Amino acid sequence: MFKFIPNVFSSFLLSFFIVSSLFAQSFNGKWSCAYATIDDQPNSTGIQTISMAVVSENNFVALVSQAAKPWVATDACYLVGYRNADSTNGRLGNYAYSTKWNQLWVNGFDAIAMDHARDLRAKGDLIFVANNDPDANILVFELSADSVVTYPLRMKTNTNPFNSIKIYAIDIDEAGRVYVTTEGDSLNPSEVLIYESPDKEPAWSTSYDAAPIQRFSLPENGDARGIAVTPDGSALYVSNFVTEKVYCYVGDPINGYQLYSGFDFTLTDEPVVSDQSTIDPAPLGIRFIPQKNILAVACQSDFKRGLNYEYGRVYLLNPNTGAILDTLDIAKWNFDRTGSYSTRPGGTLGNVSGYTSVYNVDVDENYNLYTNSYYGWTIDKWTYSVDLPTIDLLITGIERDTQTIPTEFVLAQNYPNPFNPSTTIEFSVIQKSNITLSIYSLTGELISQLINNSEFGVGVYKVNFDASKLASGTYLYTINNGTQTISRKMILVK
């Protein structure tokens, strides 16, 4: 359900819709693994690897975790830094193979052990970690020239002793605001917590206990294991491991977010080649690829679902609709090169991880993807054979006139008309309806879908349409409320 959030600065309600142009390039390249940090070698992460944070190309931090299971009382967690990495080089620090210890965040007399940490993200050289000590701190470290060290910032997310929470996924927007999810289950929904950036919130370095600037629950019970935000914070994506969905929210971190019903991504059971059975995969870590406007979703089966190494993928999604644009099939890549879904290639192959277990995904400034193999104990870099396509992503404000009560369903003539390059489309809704507003060519080709089956209450609405990428000509704009369709013509003159 789509709900509007009041804008305290005007009599209008402002909401946001993602507008997708259909003129995106096609995905005609191929993904290949440039390197995997070879297991059983000094360059390996050395133990189970649950996530990673990319600082820049070939520079990243791996989060290793011995157990990473909620039912395990203690969980060895530490960070392994890499500089100028490839398959055999780059690891910082001197860790024995299968090392098990808990890294400390230490600032003077203040010391916090990493425990059941689940995710991390980079902001420059700073590494923000979703940790699960008793206060469920967001701990901040720094990737230095030769190690990963404490940076004197942290934030408690568990400040209520009577309502203990655990945090899972984390992301950071361009302004430095930090977004985390809480762990949920089949009986309870996860929450999204948003904290002001350390540059604006002094509690990150003093009391460590600022309240989140936004807090809301997912629409369904489940466990949110991934979160991704656009650089400007206008769109937010959250994965639910239990319902096997990714949700899209639109809005902003100051005024709040609302669920966008035009986005739909839900995984279904997949066949298992070896025994003709099926597995039940679900989305985990997710990452928004900036400039390219693509949502990368790491998908894997888990132990509680009957882990099967034959499945492990990253889906690249249209961020406006959730449609799959391309697939990076990591399990198939591993099998094609080793003849097995569960082989550690050791020092023989530098571009295969083995034991496919894709829990997360990240991206560098050149649009290379990075994935982890939790059971293969590697970080893998993936390159695309051609330039990665760009998907048009426009955030359009839709104004609602709360003072006017319409008496009929109306689609008004756009204004100005003729126009160049943008125009305003106004429509009226007389009862709660699911609205679709589309732009077509005169031959019936769908050009753009401004609103995709989203719920509107009674009111008069205005939406801006930007046609800067279209050729001059006459176009149709059509509105449908589920029972009635109205169309009008508009003229673009350049």
Give the count of helical stretches.
Answer: 1
At the fold tier of CATH, the topology name of the largest domain is Neuraminidase
Helix content: under 10%
Query: What is the assigned CATH homologous superfamily of the largest domain?
Result: TolB, C-terminal domain
Quaternary class: single chain
Provide the CATH top-level class of the largest domain.
Mainly Beta
Largest beta sheet: strand ordering: 31-32-35-30-1-34-33-36-37
CATH architecture identity of the largest domain = 6 Propeller
**Percent of sequence in beta strands:** 35-45%
Terminal Cα span? 38 Å
| Count of spatially separate domains | 2
Query: Could you tell me the number of beta strands?
Result: 37
Mean pLDDT: 85
The shape, in one word, is globular
Indicate the structural class.
Answer: mainly beta
Q: Could you describe the largest sheet, including whether it forms a barrel?
A: 9 strands, antiparallel
Low-confidence stretches: 1-24
Q: Taking Cα atoms only, what radius of gyration do you get, to the nearest Å?
A: 24 Å
Structure commentary:
The protein has 494 residues and is mostly beta strands. The chain has 2 domains: 12-22 and 392-492, Immunoglobulin-like (Sandwich); 31-384, 6 Propeller (Neuraminidase). It has one helix at residues 330-338; strands at residues 12-21, 31-36, 49-56, 59-65, 77-82, 104-107, 110-113, 119-123, 126-130, 137-143, 148-156, 167-172, 178-182, 191-195, 214-217, 226-229, 235-240, 245-252, 256-259, 265-266, 270-271, 278-279, 282-289, 294-300, 313-317, 324-329, 361-363, 369-373, 378-384, 394-401, 410-411, 422-429, 433-441, 446-456, 459-466, 473-480, 485-492. Strand 6 (104-107) and strand 7 (110-113) form a beta hairpin. The radius of gyration is 24 Å and the shape is globular.
